[in-house]
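Q: Structure tokens for this one, please.
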Amino acid sequence: MMFNMRRYSDVSPLPVFQKIAEGAFGGTVTYDGTDYTRSWTPDPDGYTITKKDVPAYQPAYTGN
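A: Here is the predicted structure, written as tokens:
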């Protein structure tokens, strides 16, 4: 017999959906035990992310 000893957060996709909703759409995702509900309406034409949408990476000098 095998047991799944992973934590619920390791198995549930809800935390991933919530972070995508917050970061990409400024919205939320909830789960009622049966269905995932989102608080935004997707753009039917889609959205292309460009370099302008991503802040420039500025590495911090640590002296190493």
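A few notes: Residues 24 and 49 are 10 Å apart (CA to CA). The radius of gyration is 18 Å.
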